[in-house]
Amino acid sequence: MMGATARSAKREDCSIYRARYVMPITAPIVEDGAVVVRLGIIIAIGKYHDLRGRYLGSLCHDLGEVILMPGLINAHAHLDYTMMRGQLTSGSSFTEWMEQLNKIKSSLSQQDFLGAIVEGAQELRSWGCTTLCNIESFPDLHSKLPLLPIRLWQFIEIMDIRGSKQGEEGLFAAEQFLKKKGSIQNNFGISPHAPYTSSQSLYRDAFQLAQKYELPFCTHLAESEEEIEMFTKREGSLFEFLKNFKRDMTDCGSSTAVQTLLKNNLLPCGSMLVHMNFLSNQDRLLLAPRGNDFFIIHCPKTHHFFSRPPFDWKFFYQNGYRILLGTDSLASNDSLNLFEEMQSLVSTAPELEPEEVLKMVTLYPAAAIIMQGRLGELGSGACADMIAIPFLGRMENASEAVIHNRLFPTFIETSYLKK
Fold this sequence. Notes:
Layout: H1 4-8, E1 14-22, E2 30-38, E3 41-47, H2 48-54, E4 59-62, E5 66-70, E6 72-77, H3 94-105, H4 110-126, E7 129-136, E8 151-158, H5 164-178, E9 187-192, H6 200-213, E10 218-221, H7 225-233, H8 237-244, H9 257-263, E11 271-275, H10 281-287, E12 294-298, H11 300-305, H12 313-318, E13 322-325, H13 338-348, H14 354-359, H15 363-368, E14 385-390, H16 398-403, E15 410-413
Helix pairs in contact: 5-6
């Protein structure tokens, strides 16, 4: 396939990458395939023999017996907490885990958090991740970061659990950074943390901010049983914990947070809803017709860490939702490895087609951050963020082989990245 970009490209400006299999994600796998790249952008993909003849004079790279595919996209992480690997237990409740987290956070410095972000980005890259959706609790860290080895979408986290002034300050700080939006390496999203730490008013303001700057929107929702108890029964460990924080608890004792946010139109179309583990029958009725409106983010290994009931992927899948995978943080995981997340998912959902699982770490998260056609696929006009995975098997087994990969991938192109 060749578009206008390919026809106008100078052959000496192009590089051809040949692989045993080229996996575009959006099209069938190409055996003995190749990708043509010019200035970091893919301009053609097809059979190696055809492209070599069409692009005479281009520099050819034979990658050998590998699967060449787009770099992975991590839909959800908290790199601020990378230094917490192995330091927390799941505890007797989600609330107990949060208390452990807050205690550790209070002892850390800005330099600790900066170092954690850099270390986490390096670990993600080593396992084939080229783009990250990171929840940033401390927006002022962003301007102090060195160039990271992955594309970064910083979702500025806001909350007003301590009162409206906290929310106003968070929104102001977020907007200052959002005004800098524009570069593909300097992109932002907005993230009211969760309904138990962010008021309906703050959700409404975040919604407006997302519309103003055309931003992706992300929030944690229906994560724990304690959250459900708090909003529907005015009881439980999370209710007591937040009441002691002087949180306004008048929104508790009736409907779930899912119902409140949907009925009050507080989630923009395209919202990335993280976890969605505990849904009532009424929640499901409201969610069922809205599969085209939201993305669902599942973090399989964190789910296992908390010993939660099986994630109901079938409900979302059957209602047209796109499920994305994330690693969450090392406060509830032991690695930042999307291959392990895919392996964890298929161990509990073997019915899922391997091709669908791969879309959860490529095509779908690219759409969620409004980068469809640019990231998460190999095709004309897409960024050449590519990884190569050794493989000697048959083409029909290639997708499953990627999911079960346990080797560090080789990075190809990604010319914007620091080598």
